[in-house]
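Private note to self, pasted from the team thread so I don't lose it. Backbone tokens:
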């Protein structure tokens, strides 16, 4: 009976984890594109089971100031290309021969013939990753970035592409002074008209929450944000302390209750509805 009970608990934990991963993936794909910022399309293998690499890559791309949309199927990527008219960069998480064939068929399209693309490794064996890198570069990739290199090279590569395309983002101040305003150039924040001074990590955390209002941000996502996508070790109480300090800053500005705890999942940032028009752009 004891072993049956343990098996039952294991099954329930597995099902809950799968449901949470599916929820995170759904969150990554539901953002409405902005016409004002460079657009980056992230194509992920549908078989990807661990959402942490997807989240890390997405955060790295958002740090370039781009609007990022995540898809799992080439057909869905093509629909977004038509909807966006022309994304500026295509990023593939993982490589396969099928992706190479799809790209060959994609190139003749009139509005996609200059679409640069990058490939990020997906933790493949070293020998396979070497072959994938060669195949991707021969197919025309601007770069192949092994998963072991971390997010910084990806951010740098995409920034360079955007610079070459002469599409620098518009002015860095976003949001409304009456509710929540974030100035990404000076790293200043106004909450309900009051300027609040935030250290860098809290600034990045508030910025991410503001870009994803009313969404549940998981503890793993927050840990990844605090480590700047590097997967670095964080002391057990670091996350709790940062959330506590951010809440205190919000409360001092009169924004008590904007940051809610969602027991067992993470946190939800729920500012007044008119803060949802904050345009997406990440700190440089």
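Design output:
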């Amino acid at each position: 009976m004891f072993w049956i009970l343990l098996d039952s608990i294991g099954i329930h934990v597995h099902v809950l984890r799968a449901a949470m991963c599916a929820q995170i993936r759904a969150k990554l794909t539901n953002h409405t594109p902005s016409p004002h910022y460079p657009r980056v399309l992230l194509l992920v293998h549908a078989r990807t089971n661990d959402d942490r690499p997807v989240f890390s890559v997405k955060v790295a791309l958002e740090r370039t100031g781009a609007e990022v949309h995540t898809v799992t199927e080439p057909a869905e990527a093509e629909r977004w290309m038509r909807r966006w008219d022309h994304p500026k960069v295509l990023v593939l998480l993982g490589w396969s021969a099928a992706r190479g064939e799809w790209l060959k068929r994609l190139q003749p399209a009139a509005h996609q013939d200059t679409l640069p693309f990058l490939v990020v490794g997906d933790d493949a064996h070293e020998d396979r990753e070497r072959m994938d890198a060669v195949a991707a570069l021969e197919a025309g990739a601007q770069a192949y970035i092994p998963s072991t290199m971390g997010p910084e090279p990806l951010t740098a590569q995409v920034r360079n592409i955007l610079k070459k395309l002469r599409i620098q983002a518009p002015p860095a101040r976003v949001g409304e002074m009456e509710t929540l305003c974030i100035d990404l150039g000076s790293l200043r924040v106004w909450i309900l008209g009051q300027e609040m001074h935030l250290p860098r990590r809290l600034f990045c955390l508030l910025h991410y929450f503001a870009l994803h209002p009313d969404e549940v941000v998981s503890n793993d996502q927050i840990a990844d944000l605090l480590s700047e996508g590097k997967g670095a070790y964080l002391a057990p109480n670091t996350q709790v302390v940062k959330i506590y300090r951010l809440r205190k800053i919000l409360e001092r500005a009169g924004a008590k209750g904007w940051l809610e705890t969602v027991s067992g999942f993470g946190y939800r940032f729920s500012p007044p509805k008119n803060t949802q028009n904050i345009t997406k752009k990440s700190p440089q």
